[in-house]
Every structure is written in C-alpha cells, then in structure tokens.
C-alpha cells in the first residue's frame, strides 16, 4: 500500500509542477509546448496498457512470437500517420481530430465519429482498468480487506487528482515516468528469470532465438488467424485506426510545437515501440520456459502474475506491481483526458457556445462525469456481468467501433464525394454489426478466420456504405 501511495504521490507532485496553468489550452493541447522526445517515450506506456503487460507474455505458449507480425505492420501504419494524418491535423489546427469529419462531411458524421470514439474508449479503458484492478485485488487488496469497488474508486480518484488541472500537459510527463517504471519492471524480471534459468546477458538472446517458442513468421496456412500477411496488414490498419484515428493517442502528438516535431515523435516512437514489444515477447518466452521447468501450471494471463507473486521473490513482485500499475494508469489517465476533451469539444461544442471561464467550468464537470462513468462501468463488469468471457466480448465489440472511423477517414481522404450526412450514423452502426456477424460465422461459412483482419472488413463495409449514400454531383 505504501508503495502504491508513494507512486501516486510522485505523479501528483508532477501534476503540481505542470499544473500551474490550468486553462483549457493546457488541458486539451498542453499549450503546444511538449518536447517531442518526451511525448514519444510517454506514448509507449499509453500504447501498451496493463492488458499488454499481463497478456503479451502469456501468449507465447499458444502463439509463439507471431504477434511480431502485427508489430511489423504497425511500422507501416505509423508511417501513414506521420505522413498523411499528422499533416492534416496540424494544417487544420485541430483540438479534437474528429472536427475534420465536420469540415469534410457535416455535423452528423462529426458527431458519429466522436460518439464511436467515446463508446470505444469508455468500454476499452474500463476493461483495461478492470483487468488490472482484478489482478491487484487477487494478489494484494483481498489480503488486507479492501473490497473491489473501493479499489476502483480509489484508483480512478487518484487518476482524477493528477489530471484534473492540466490534463494532457501533465500526462505527457507522467506517462514518461510511468513508461520508465514499466520498462524497468520488465528488465528486472528478465534479469531474475534468466538467472533462474542459468542464463547470462551473453546468451539470453541466443537462448530465445534457438527456442521453438520464438517462431515469428507463419506463411503456411492463409486461413489461419496468425498467417503473416493477414497479421501484417491488420497491424498496419490497427496502428492507423487505434493510434492515428484515436483522440487519446493523437492528443499527445498534437501537443508538440510543430508538425516536424510531431513527425519526429512518431518516428522514434515507432522504433522504440517495436523494440519494447519484442522485449515483452522475450519476457513471455523466458517465463513460459521457467514455469515448465519448475512444474508450475500457469498459462495465459495468469503466467506473469503467478510467477511474480509466488516464485520469483519479493523484489520481482514489487517491480511487477510497479510495472503493472504504471502500464495500467499511463493508459487510463490519457483515456480520461481524451474522453473529457472529445465530449467537451465534439459533443457539447464548448469552444463555440461558451466563454473562456464557462468553458473551463464545463470541462471540469465533464472530467468528473467521466471519472464517475469509468467507476460505474468497471464495477458493473465485476458485479453485474460476472462472466468474464462476456466482458471480453464487450471489449472486442468496442474495437469494432474503430471500423467506421477507418471507413469515414479513408472516404474523406481518398475521394472527393460528399455524402448524405444524415444517413452516415446508420451506415456507421450497420457496418460493425455486419462485421461482427461475419466474424463470428466466418469459420463455418468460409473456413477462414478473420482475426485482426476484421477491422479492415469493417472499414471496407463503411466505405462501401458511404459510396451508396454519396450525393450526386451537379
């Protein structure tokens, strides 16, 4: 408990120093003063989240290093973000990236894009925090008599405390610290596990590369979900959509002083994130081998927590907790800020409808509102929807909301057609529903697993739907 309180104490201290200007320009844009290298490093933690911290190491047993195929696809996606989307956002001087949809198509398209982001982010951020809170509950808080709902309230309250004044301006710096803590935790764990396996720094990489578990490329079965081209292309689109079309991730980029700085940020972020994902997979391989060697029955999401708590000593356990908290909250704090930004700018139009003081007051109210929403959704996952497979499906379905964004932006950027703006919400709802139906039945109907590829189908259906409702040119 002292460790966690000390950790948040540091974050609140950072918020004190960065929060001396608490206007909306600081909250939404960081006064456009963020150093690009700080943004790049901090985005690592926000991209990975607590789910990655727990789940990626647990994938090795079943999937080997196939996830690297997706990561390599990310590189292409980030290239598109840096060369196509960032110039667009800076040219239009956007606070919310969804404002582009209003300028390109109209108000209904704009509200639809923002609403889909809000739904996806509420479900996604809540799910990520739920998973991490669950792990912390089992390995720590149950033992000291703190109930799950209390854990959640305290967690979200602490995030609110260090973000409420300056939002993204604070988060750029706190995420950098949290990314550092997360990477230290991974490094310490690798050091101890490799020691237990009798490896030293000179032969760890060789051991990993020689293992059957490190198989990375899969070209054998195009119907399989881990087929190379399927994962590589999906990775590119996942990066474009879940970073480039995501207010949460782009808001950090837009705090850089210039487009050139933002592009440098994306370039270095891409390199570092690729390396970090590889390190996570290496950690997973070492943990998997170690668990098998000592006869521990720990798989998937249980692998890292069980070994850290029960088999690798108190030192690793402490670093595991720090890394887990850092990974979870570097994702959650920026999500809370992005939700506040998007709802304030996109849904309530506060910049158009309110004066400066009223804007700040309204933004603070929205920030509190979304803090409460996150608490309620997370607690509902625990107490109302007790079947975790249902929760996982909810999270997957939230991911479907990115498909319409992909279709809308692709249509806007690569065609000159206008659309019947009022019909766009219908297309945006039908596309993910159809995609979901196809995905669930694809093995039976086509003998084909979409996997991550479903995002592309979703975007394509939206694109085709927009073609159908395009306005005739006069």
From TrEMBL:
<feature type="transmembrane region" description="Helical">
    <location>
        <begin position="391"/>
        <end position="411"/>
    </location>
</feature>
<feature type="transmembrane region" description="Helical">
    <location>
        <begin position="312"/>
        <end position="332"/>
    </location>
</feature>
<dbReference type="InterPro" id="IPR051163">
    <property type="entry name" value="Sodium:Solute_Symporter_SSF"/>
</dbReference>
<keyword id="KW-0472">Membrane</keyword>
<feature type="transmembrane region" description="Helical">
    <location>
        <begin position="445"/>
        <end position="469"/>
    </location>
</feature>
<feature type="transmembrane region" description="Helical">
    <location>
        <begin position="176"/>
        <end position="193"/>
    </location>
</feature>
<feature type="transmembrane region" description="Helical">
    <location>
        <begin position="227"/>
        <end position="245"/>
    </location>
</feature>
<keyword id="KW-0406">Ion transport</keyword>
<dbReference type="GO" id="GO:0006814">
    <property type="term" value="P:sodium ion transport"/>
</dbReference>
<feature type="transmembrane region" description="Helical">
    <location>
        <begin position="423"/>
        <end position="439"/>
    </location>
</feature>
<protein>
    <submittedName>
        <fullName>Sodium:solute symporter</fullName>
    </submittedName>
</protein>
<feature type="transmembrane region" description="Helical">
    <location>
        <begin position="72"/>
        <end position="92"/>
    </location>
</feature>
<keyword id="KW-1133">Transmembrane helix</keyword>
<keyword id="KW-0813">Transport</keyword>
<feature type="transmembrane region" description="Helical">
    <location>
        <begin position="113"/>
        <end position="140"/>
    </location>
</feature>
<keyword id="KW-0739">Sodium transport</keyword>
<keyword id="KW-0812">Transmembrane</keyword>
<feature type="transmembrane region" description="Helical">
    <location>
        <begin position="35"/>
        <end position="60"/>
    </location>
</feature>
<dbReference type="GO" id="GO:0015293">
    <property type="term" value="F:symporter activity"/>
</dbReference>
<feature type="transmembrane region" description="Helical">
    <location>
        <begin position="6"/>
        <end position="23"/>
    </location>
</feature>
<keyword id="KW-0915">Sodium</keyword>
<dbReference type="InterPro" id="IPR001734">
    <property type="entry name" value="Na/solute_symporter"/>
</dbReference>
<comment type="similarity">
    <text>Belongs to the sodium:solute symporter (SSF) (TC 2.A.21) family.</text>
</comment>
<keyword id="KW-1003">Cell membrane</keyword>
<feature type="transmembrane region" description="Helical">
    <location>
        <begin position="366"/>
        <end position="385"/>
    </location>
</feature>
<dbReference type="InterPro" id="IPR038377">
    <property type="entry name" value="Na/Glc_symporter_sf"/>
</dbReference>
<feature type="transmembrane region" description="Helical">
    <location>
        <begin position="266"/>
        <end position="292"/>
    </location>
</feature>
<dbReference type="Pfam" id="PF00474">
    <property type="entry name" value="SSF"/>
</dbReference>
<dbReference type="GO" id="GO:0005886">
    <property type="term" value="C:plasma membrane"/>
</dbReference>
<feature type="transmembrane region" description="Helical">
    <location>
        <begin position="146"/>
        <end position="164"/>
    </location>
</feature>
